[in-house]
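Exam revision sheet. Question 4 asks you to relate a sequence to its structure. Input first:
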Amino acid sequence: MIKYDKGNGILKNWIVSESEFHPESLGKCEVIMSLGNGYMGLRSALEEPYLNEKRNWFVAGTFNKFDESEVTELPNMPDVTQIKMVLNGKKFTLQDGEILNYERRLNLKIGEVIRDVTWRSDNGETFNIRFRRFISLSNKHLMGMQIQLTPVDGNVEIDLQSGIDGQVNNSGVQHFSDLERRTYEDTYLTMTTTTTESRVGVAIACGHNIVINEKEQHVKPAISMERRRVTYNYKLKVSQNETFYFEKIVVINTSRDKQWQELSLNLEALKETGLDMIRSEGSLGYEELLNKSKEKWQDYWMSNGVFLQSENDIDELAVRFAQYHLRIMAPYHDDRIGIAAKGLCGEGYKGHSFWDTEIFILPYFSYVEPEVAKNLLKYRYRLLDSARSKALKNGYEGAMFPWETAWIDDGEVTPEWGAADVVTGEPMRIWTGIIEHHISADIAFAVWQYYLVSDDDEFMKNYGYEIIFETARFWGSRLEWNEIKKQMEICNVIGPDEYKEHVNNNAYTNTMAQNNMQLGLKCYEKIKENDPTCFEKLNECLKLNELFSDLKEKLPLLYVPSPNEDGILPQDDSYLLKKKLDVGYYRNQSRVDAIFEDYNITQLADYQVTKQADVLSLMFLHSNRYSKEIKKANWDYYEPKTLHDSSLSLSMHTLLACDIEEYETAYAFFQKAAMIDLGSYMKSSDAGIHAAAIGGIWMDTILGFGGIGINDGQLKIQPKLPNAWKELAFQIEWHGQRLMIEMSKEQKYIKVINLTKTKILIIEIMNMEYELKDKLEVKIE
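Answer key, structure tokens:
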């Protein structure tokens, strides 16, 4: 049972808790209570082992390919979290004995997981046990664990085993060469290894500390070395009502870390780095290391936190939950790494990045932490050579970005084959990496959105313009001439609705391509007029004059679908001609893809059934292009046909519902979006967190209900609070200025405070322009 009301006082709406132990559905809390710092992510498997557990520990960027027949994936690091305990001869496991009390909770405010258990063994002996765990924001390489145990009924002899286990794998795939294992000073353990194909070096070091009644104990352990595993085995006695503390501090370093990127692989040096770190940091102990991390979390929430007064407390918790996970999955430390579609807490999608980042996640960082947004876009810039190679391979010019990406040198990493076809029984071909092309336009769109929010000219000169020009060049070469209709078209693609493969003129794709090409022309004229030095530099290597001529010729000929006489924008050339299907049964299922129990993807091509927001996504992203009436007509047409079989769908529908002023409908969709991971369905998160849905929760809150947007390059604020919300307050960054924005439905005001105060800004509030120096308050109806 997952609960969200356990926080009181200053912890109200900060605690996610589990009140009962369910061994058949461990994955839920392993994921939603996962820990991380952007460098690494740890799935919160319990210390004691269980059959259905999934022990995942990932370090961002350490991709490896197991075999030529497979694509690269993030390797599961050797496990350090399993700690086995035997108490007076009885193995501690919650599947034996009796659970007298149980609660596990994630404190979003400080990034710590605590589990409290009162357990009675089969011997009738009772123990109070507390497990604690955190990953440090202060030192990205470090994590800490602590066990507190108090025997209630009598003395206890404890047998405890803890170490490093390299026998874990990625669902059967082993990514590491044989491991070197060492022990030092009866305290420290190390394991060093390399990935099998990418030759990434990994060095793990851990240290242990034992305290009984606040006195440090020097217990000599027995050493156990098995294949790919090294452990310390401790035996000690604890008297009744004494408290035994066992601390484990772990550090991990890899040769992918930036400080090693110019050096040749040296596992010995990597290991010594870890040993030095564990000796210095480990001596501080769990509490002091946690306090250092707490300070960083405090800074994060002070700058980025959202205050929300709602009739439903879970709304505020859901936004905090989203921001917590955005923080622990994002590469604050490195611009060579993207964000995985399942974050850093699950094997789903193999750690790959998709368009999810640009459309659903990047807005958060662009508005709140622009340096991280810049990292994510520089990651795409580093992929330009791969994008050019893919374009060339497919007969195009410019940059055709891979659908799935991993390390910056890996290129396209979309698997070729997927699950079995429900009709034929044969593996289904995965076409997304071949014909889902809109990602190139999505990236260009995100670059420009970042620029509009940040006003970061240096980024555009060094990275952004080149991305826009090269993707525009791709679309110019991708267009196909239809001699009969005398127009340029984009044929044989997959749009956001991945239930429709091999379609022509997908409205989303064509419109985003048009926007990309328009941006190419706009940027050409902008830098040619305003920055001749930048223009000459880019023109020399990118042949901008030729590109300009090509785009000017082709852009007016590009067919972009427009609404028909009923106001409906055709999703593609054939969608409106397809048969209708009663999708009510499939929309009401708690699991996604239920329709594939009855239909295969080929059969679905014949029906008006949509996986996720497609036309409706377009109408939000290009909101000024369509009237409210057109948006409403398309909502009424497409939403009933949409299964929401992607976690990306509900948040996008929330945003468009805000746009058409259907605020209570928007709120209902927001509540569903927030429950994708937090909800009661215990299998929804097994493969990892839904990163795009997490980003979508923040977008819904700030861009949807908060009404933050961009109008003709200007910041726009037009609140659309649902009835359940009374007040909303948050911070964003606009053109280098930190703004605190408050809005109150009850007191009828919008307040904007410029915390930076180095620029005067012109902003639009409720369709009126205002000059912001220090602060302003606008009364609203």
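Marking note for examiners. The first strand starts at residue 2 and ends at 3.
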